[in-house]
Write a structure and sequence with these properties.
Elements (H helix, E strand, L loop, with lengths): L9 E7 L2 E7 L5 E6 L5 E8 L2 E4 L7 H6 L6 E3 L10 E4 L2 E4 L22 E7 L3 E11 L9 E10 L2 E10 L5 E2 L3 E3 L1 E2 L10 E3 L2 E5 L14 E3 L12 E2 L6 E7 L7 E6 L6 E6 L3 E5 L12 E6 L12 H4 E2 L4 E11 L2
Antiparallel strand pairs: 1-2, 2-3, 3-4, 4-5, 6-14, 7-8, 9-10, 10-11, 11-12, 12-26, 13-25, 15-24, 16-19, 16-21, 17-18, 17-20, 20-23, 21-22, 22-26, 23-24
Length: 337
């Protein structure tokens, strides 16, 4: 553990069963963040409220869940987020198949390649301003359907502003690679269903998908929220019985450059803002997950829309030249009652 005093944050290595984790704590103990090395998955984000610690993160509960990753809770998604249609895409004129030989339902590729990766702890830092852990992996290497090499680092910072996640993706291969970042966090504001929580997403456009959550071809994928009022959360409103598994685009930033998706529990006054600097927001009310359906909501900042490898409008955003590095920043702000 890094030496601390009453005015400093703390960061230490720990374990959840057999799983190595890292714990970041504020100077007064009022906020604590736990991150697993397996998949660099955030496990919990506890804040002090009404004399007790309240966990805002609906992460994996034990070592078995960390290993089996139900619901991809807090998954780091690289080199792509969401799904790739039929596990096939074409990049720079070369057709690629991520599931060669697979047929039918087996032809599925989603959420990138690092959910089962053991990340290496490459930096632990704590001072008066915050605590940080950097987790790194060199596991993204040429494989069927992805003949590229990407080094990935993910840094979690706990400070007075909340959580910041910064991902850095470096192309260490000799070919231009398609690559983008996504995060799959689940949040719980109260021990209730999501129905009584308020949601606000500062988007102008909904991405329309088919039954497999693949965006419709071309311009048909994009619909103005004025035309789909049931899915319009530009003004804060209760989730009620809304069933969401949708991406929102054309996000509007606040004056400081951060795009904020707001989640608020009117009964307690507790609220969070999930922020990002660009990209799309995917909202999922958890109706189809096997554990605690509709007891948490996934608010997923993504650098590009799902199936971006197959979308001409995303071609420039996903290109990573040999030797080049691109970063993506997002995070969580807490608003206590």
């Amino acid at each position: 553990m890094i030496p601390t005093n009453a005015a400093r944050y703390a960061v230490e290595r720990a374990r959840l069963g057999e799983q190595p984790i890292v714990v970041l704590t504020s100077p007064d103990g009022s906020r604590r963040l736990r991150v697993a090395c397996h998949g660099a998955a955030l496990l919990s984000f506890e804040v002090a409220m009404d004399g007790a610690m309240h966990d805002l993160a609906d992460g994996y509960r034990d070592a078995a869940e960390v290993a089996s990753r139900p619901g991809s809770r807090f998954a780091i998604m690289v080199p792509f987020a969401g799904r790739i249609a039929d596990a096939r895409y074409t990049f720079d004129g070369q057709p690629q198949d991520l599931q060669p030989g697979a047929v039918g339902a087996a032809r599925a590729s989603r959420h990138g390649f690092v959910r089962d990766t053991e990340f290496e702890i490459t930096a632990l830092e704590a001072d008066e301003q915050g605590a940080r852990v950097t987790l790194s992996t060199t596991s993204i290497r040429p494989q069927p359907g992805y003949p590229h090499a990407i080094d990935l680092t993910v840094t979690f910072t706990l400070d007075a502003g909340g959580i910041t996640l910064e991902a850095r993706m470096r192309n260490v291969g000799d070919s231009t690679a398609p690559c983008f970042f996504g995060w799959h966090p689940y949040f719980r504001l109260a021990n209730t269903t999501v129905d009584g929580w308020q949601l606000q997403i500062p988007a102008q456009t909904l991405i329309r998908t088919d039954a497999e959550l693949i965006a419709l071809p071309g311009a048909a994928a994009f619909v103005a929220l004025d035309d789909v009022p049931a899915l319009d959360f530009r003004t804060p409103r209760l989730l009620g019985d809304s069933v969401l598994d949708h991406e929102y685009a054309n996000l509007e930033a606040d004056a400081d450059g951060r795009i904020r998706t707001h989640l608020h529990d009117p009964s307690s006054g507790l609220a969070i803002a999930v922020w990002q600097e660009r990209g799309v927001m995917h909202a999922f009310t958890g109706d189809t997950i096997s554990r605690d359906a509709r007891r948490a909501i996934a608010l997923e900042p993504m650098e590009c829309m799902a199936d971006a490898f197959n979308r001409p409008e995303c071609a420039d955003a996903i290109r990573l030249l040999p030797g080049a590095e691109r970063s993506f920043r997002c995070g969580v702000e807490v608003q206590l009652p």
